[in-house]
Amino acid sequence: MTAQATDLETEVLIAGGGLVGLSTAMFLGRHGVRSLVIERRQGVSVVPRAAHFHLRTLELFRQAGIEEEVARRSEEEFLPDGAIVAMDCLAGRQLANIIGSLNEGVEALSPCRRLFISQPKLEPILRRRAQADGATVLGGHEVVGFEQGSSGVTVLARDVATGEERRLHGQYLVAADGAHSRVRELLGIPLEGRGVFSNSMTIYFDADVSPYLAGKALSVIYINNPVLGGVFRFDRSCRSGFLIVNMTGDPARDPDAADAARDVSEARLTALVRSGVGVADLPVTITAVARWRATASVARRYGEGRIFLVGDAAHLMPPNGGFGGNTGIHDAHNLAWKLAWALKRSAGDGLLATYEDERRSVGQLTVEQAYSRYVARTAPYLAADDVQPIVPDFNIELGYHYRSAAIESEDAPVLLHDHPHQACGRPGTRAAHVWLRRNGSRISCLDLFGGSFVLVAASPEAGWRAAAAPFAGHGLACHCVSVDLIDTDRRFAAAYGVSESGAVLVRPDGFVSWRAPTVPADPRGALARALARTLDWPAREGALIS
Fold it and tell me: Are the CB atoms for 516 and 503 separated by under 8 Å?
């Protein structure tokens, strides 16, 4: 079909308007970048999937100004701070206590708290925030083709109702179009990993299970019995929820046990819910069912030219640990500021290349950790020598490390992750949370980050404010402890691994790109070189210093 002659122009095109696509648009908007989201659906998701959102994700929502609304909507749907356990059935016995409380130990690491919220509640918040900052959502359309050149990407989008096609042009394209990404397919980028290990399904249903959950603060209940292996999640009322089914029967005896979705008749779905609850005559109303393949895979490349993959388009993992959506949102956040700096002509071409360098290794780590949790909690028959040991959740949520040209390396062991308390301001790690006071109000130092590069000096005596002044026009803000920030607990210097004369440079995504444990002989020159490295400006170092 011939496309319309009239093109729509924007800075960034986004294929897919779900959780990750809308987050991408929101983060771009916070940097003043216009985007156009192309989404098959006319509205938001109607499937009541309840997602587990991690600390880092809530910190990013905090930056975007939506943390309080998200938390409020979460409490309307779900009890906060519940445990994650394994049981043989809801009416039966507990097999394991996986996490005693969802937010145990978080106060020392973050100003935020983990929570559950369903996509129908979250997506409208993301969409409103993105649109308020300049994003446009084109509903009822899908990407069917694209061309990219030196000046941008032209997308061919089809109206799913009428078949009418139109051309959309942007300087970049972000593929947030999910597990079956059309963009990834057209780029010819394969997935690599463990392949499919279960034909799974999610059963959405209404049933009153309050007699079995009353008085029990349980967020996630793994079910392991001879009939099924899967996961329950219920709303606050204990009358509506979903059951993920990964396995039916014993894989050692039944070769079809991992083909859980082979029969989706209402009678079978009802029987599975009843088995999971442990009540043979429980009244159950099936409201929906979604079939999907459990896999653990990562795209061989995270993009090509002016096109970038995020979320499920870049990596696929089982839901164990709740890492999938969170990892996609973190992809979007990492990419958004780099696109913004590239569009402002404030960075060299090398900055965008660091998106894959930084996020693909994190994707590989997280996919394997999700798989390890799947094996340990649901499918121990898959245990083998190549299954990675499970590392603490905090390491995956907050403790992953970036390695790229946008990070100033130090003479220290190269790590993929660590407990966030051990990061201590090392370049490539998330900036640590420390409570401070500013203008009489208590803030987290994380509240300083998100819009620009930020230099934080441990004290005003070392001359860092004067060193930073020439770079204010390059998007650098400077704060000094004991001047505009009060460190009442005297934790900042230790948390960032600097002395009283040192300073730390934090990128717009809240990751440390460089630090000076003590003040160097030429602080302005050292800062100029750090910015030039991060922003791929080696030829302009002299101009920065002058």
Answer: yes
